[in-house]
Amino acid sequence: MPDLRVALLTREYPPEVYGGAGVHVEYLARELARLAEVTVHAWGADRPAHPGDNPAVRSYRPWEALAGDEPYLAALQALSIDLTMTAGSADAQVVHSHTWYANLAGHLASLVYGIPHVATVHSLEPLRPWKAEQLGGGYALSSYAERTGLESAAAIIAVSAAMREDLLQTYPAIDPARVSVIHNGIDTEHFRRDLRGGVLVARGIDPARPIVLFVGRMTRQKGIAHLLAAAAQFDPSAQLVLVAGSPDTPELAAEVGRGLDRLRRNRDGVIWIAEMVPRAELVQILSHASVFVCPSVYEPLGIVNLEAMACELPVVATDTGGIPEVVVDGVTGLLVPFEPRDDGSREPVDPVAFAAGIAQGVNALLADPVRAAALGAAGRHRVIERFSWSVIAQRTVELYRSVLAAAPRSRG
Questions:
Q1: For the chain, how many structural domains are there in total?
Q2: Which of 169, 232, 260, 312 is the most buried (most CB within 10 A)?
């Protein structure tokens, strides 16, 4: 029996995963369970349980009194789950929170039980001002929960060096010595080329035409509006396929829908899959694509780029955040120059030039499939060499043990 008991606190966990943080926790939990006794505390419906499961999963739902449609209620619901997660973590030796949805629970568990709180930073609320559009006044609560959890954590994991730099600039009260960089990872057995084509036809994608692919949540940080502007300049022989679900707001979903309608008036082969498809289907779509495009205006790392590279797909991505730590310009893909405005919005100073840069990178690879294939092969090699979940889990356990050793009063 492992001698270390860990509580992973998260909003997302299978089968309810809609973003990179959920993917991260899914694979991290699996690998940590080989090294420690792990319990995942997650939002959502009860998950099937079996005796001896490691990781075990405990599910939480918001207080019924907080039901309603007002945007700020989503933040209050998150805080209600934080309280019940805290109560559910009594048997842990260390708590490890992911995103603002669980950071406050990690902090409270540390106070209540005298155990270390480790937090992984996947993004930062002050660098995502568009969240105010989603949460209304609840954005102040999400920012409060994040700041309180991070500034008091025993240790913080940044998923990239760029994320670490952003963290220390955003929260100068945090001691740099408490912040380590442990990259996101990828399972290269789950994500590897699968050239069966049944999924493409079922989804309305033509396997005989080049495919420019976007995969991601429908949020402003993913730069979908800039992708649609760039797509007007893509080689007309190519299809544009967007696998984009979980919109931040109904208004954003409608805005993207209108942008797609405008694009379709000038070109065919524009396909929107308005959901996050099952992994096996996603792998088939990735494997048949010609170019993967990541137009994010804010991206601490971008697991989706790792998924594409693992399927030998060349990437055209924004030169921002942690993306250059994954996508090597001219080796595994092409990076698009990006200069954000200084008003905190992260929107590009010159959106026309940014869209043109995306289109230029995409068209260059569409025109040179030999080069594109070489970049894709190099991408898979880089993923296997540098982004293994087993290595990430081992480094994470070493961090747990270091904070436990530094906190002699913590409960064993």
A1: 2
A2: 312
